[in-house]
């Protein structure tokens, strides 16, 4: 465990500066691109927004590195495994879908690392027009050795579910444990080390970056607070790799590999507001109803990737953390609903309140656009007659949702190859029975 070696800067999207302590003064002072950089480093800008974006959305970082990224052999196409951007592989399926926990490869069978273990489950849109999302599962058992991943298509929001992951990035190292999430933005090279059987979820967005949601009447504090987001500090290795270091580039939905003779994690110092970051979900300040009825689940939004339509997200990352339920004369579980958004849910640990059975950690559900869903029969019956007193909800549990305004297609892997689809899911609502009584009258006080 190398957590002790990982150090972080706190804040969300701030203008950070960091130098590896082994090279004091490596960050140029007073300008970004001096004629000669300290320590003989190369300056390289990584732009995360159009140059002309308004200030609040303008994102870029300057990296000072031993060799520039461009020093690599040409990219050649490589095998994509189960990673895809083909949204018409199988016929559309509007049903409620539920997956049992996705299978993690045993290392005795074959070695699978983070990149080869990526499987696309569903998604929509298009990397070329910069508008869309993909939801992937990763299941792996081996660290990436002399291999890094560079995503030209979009940002990865990574939700580890089983096994901690050590992510080395050009900006430094982050240890990310289940119940934490991290975001690696477009074009940031990273490599993933694992320490056993590892599984998690990835939300990829093309053409937007994750932001903290606006708080409106909530005020200046609450939900995910900026200070709890952690960005790694500069860390470099000056390592030559005679056998070849492989940079894998995801570009227009396909993978390409290129060889170079040195480690890409050669950034000695950097500054800027375009960085990878992580966040511990326990730090989320939960807002909820304290009188009656429900607030909509948008109160649980950690991060949002906005679309160009006001108020409509390409995708929101929403969590259902442990909290108190106190609403009076209210059916407290999530209400029955149909939504103009698509809802993918995953479970990091514990049991989800609206479905005690069937939805397990490491599995998932997809409730597509306007597909009805809600509590199963047991949950409905119990919650309709429960004595309402303040009680803890979701202790020991962390469920989350990727909610999207896209109507997502499920891949062939998701519907067939993975063999984890639970065909009996719809049956959890079959026992719902009628309570209607035409003779019912309001009771006279
Ligand atoms: C796709 O996933 C399946 C099951 O998850 C796996 O057996 C298969 O090897 C993968 N295919 C490729 C090409 O990696
Ligand atoms: C990484 O991706 C960026 C685009 O996001 C691209 O400009 C760059 O050439 C890639 N670099 C390497 C070394 O893969
Ligand atoms: C992969 O899984 C096997 C079996 O559970 C375990 O013994 C091994 O240590 C794991 N490999 C890695 C690299 O964690
Ligand atoms: Fe829902």
UniProtKB/TrEMBL annotation:
This is Homogentisate 1,2-dioxygenase. Pathway: Amino-acid degradation; L-phenylalanine degradation; acetoacetate and fumarate from L-phenylalanine: step 4/6. Catalyzes the conversion of homogentisate to maleylacetoacetate. GO terms for biological process: L-phenylalanine catabolic process; L-tyrosine catabolic process. It holds the Pfam family HgmA_N. Belongs to the homogentisate dioxygenase family. Residues 7-281 form the Homogentisate 1,2-dioxygenase N-terminal domain. Homohexamer arranged as a dimer of trimers. It comes from Oncorhynchus mykiss. Its cofactor is Fe cation. GO terms for molecular function: homogentisate 1,2-dioxygenase activity; metal ion binding. CDD domains: cupin_HGO_N (cd07000). Keywords: Dioxygenase, Iron, Metal-binding, Oxidoreductase, Phenylalanine catabolism, Tyrosine catabolism. Residues 283-436 form the Homogentisate 1,2-dioxygenase C-terminal domain. GO terms for cellular component: cytoplasm. Signal peptide: none annotated. Its EC number is 1.13.11.5. SUPFAM superfamilies: RmlC-like cupins. The keyword Secreted does not apply. Homogentisate binds at residues 352, 373. The active site is at residue 294. The keyword Translocase does not apply. It catalyses: homogentisate + O2 = 4-maleylacetoacetate + H(+). InterPro entries: HgmA_C (IPR046451), HgmA_N (IPR046452), Homogentis_dOase (IPR005708), RmlC-like_jellyroll (IPR014710), RmlC_Cupin_sf (IPR011051). Fe cation binds at residues 337, 343, 373.
């Amino acid at each position: 465990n190398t957590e002790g070696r990982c150090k972080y800067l706190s804040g969300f999207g701030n203008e950070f500066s960091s130098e590896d302590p082994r090279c004091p003064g490596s960050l140029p002072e007073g300008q970004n691109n001096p004629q000669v950089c300290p320590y003989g480093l190369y300056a390289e800008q990584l732009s995360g927004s159009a140059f002309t974006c308004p200030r609040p959305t303008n994102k870029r970082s300057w990296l000072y590195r031993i060799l520039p990224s461009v020093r690599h052999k040409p990219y050649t196409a490589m095998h994509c495994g189960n990673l895809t951007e083909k949204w018409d592989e199988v016929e559309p399926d509007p049903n409620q879908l539920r997956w049992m926990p996705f299978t993690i490869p045993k290392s005795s069978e074959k070695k699978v690392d983070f990149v080869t273990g990526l499987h696309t489950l569903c998604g929509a849109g298009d990397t070329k027009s910069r508008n869309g999302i993909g939801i992937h599962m990763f299941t792996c058992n081996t660290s990436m050795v002399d291999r890094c991943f560079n995503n030209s298509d979009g940002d990865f929001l990574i939700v580890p579910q089983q096994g901690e992951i050590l992510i080395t990035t050009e900006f430094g190292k982050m240890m990310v444990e289940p119940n934490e999430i991290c975001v690696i933005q477009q074009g940031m090279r990273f490599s993933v080390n694992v320490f056993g059987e590892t599984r998690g979820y990835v939300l990829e967005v093309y053409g937007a970056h994750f932001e903290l949601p606006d708080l409106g009447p909530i005020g200046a504090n609450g939900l995910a607070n900026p200070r709890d987001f952690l960005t790694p500090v500069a860390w470099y290795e000056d390592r030559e790799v005679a056998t070849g270091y492989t940079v894998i580039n995801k570009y227009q939905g396909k993978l390409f590999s290129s060889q170079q003779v040195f480690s890409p994690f050669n950034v000695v110092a950097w500054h800027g507001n375009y960085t990878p970051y992580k966040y511990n979900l326990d730090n989320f300040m939960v807002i909820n109803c304290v009188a009656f009825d429900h607030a909509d689940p948008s109160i649980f939004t950690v991060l949002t990737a906005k679309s160009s339509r006001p108020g409509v997200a390409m995708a929101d990352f929403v969590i259902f953390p442990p909290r108190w339920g106190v609403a009076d004369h209210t059916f407290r579980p999530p209400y029955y609903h149909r939504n103009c958004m698509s809802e993918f849910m995953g479970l990091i640990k514990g049991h989800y309140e609206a479905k005690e059975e069937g939805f397990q950690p490491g599995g998932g559900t997809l409730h597509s656009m306007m597909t009805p869903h809600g509590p199963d029969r047991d949950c409905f019956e119990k919650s309709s007659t429960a004595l309402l007193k303040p009680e803890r909800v979701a202790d020991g549990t962390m469920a989350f949702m990727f909610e999207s305004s896209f109507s997502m297609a499920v891949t062939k892997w998701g519907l067939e190859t993975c063999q984890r689809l639970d065909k009996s899911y719809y049956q959890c609502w079959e026992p719902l029975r009628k309570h209607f009584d035409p003779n019912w009258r309001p009771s006279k006080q």
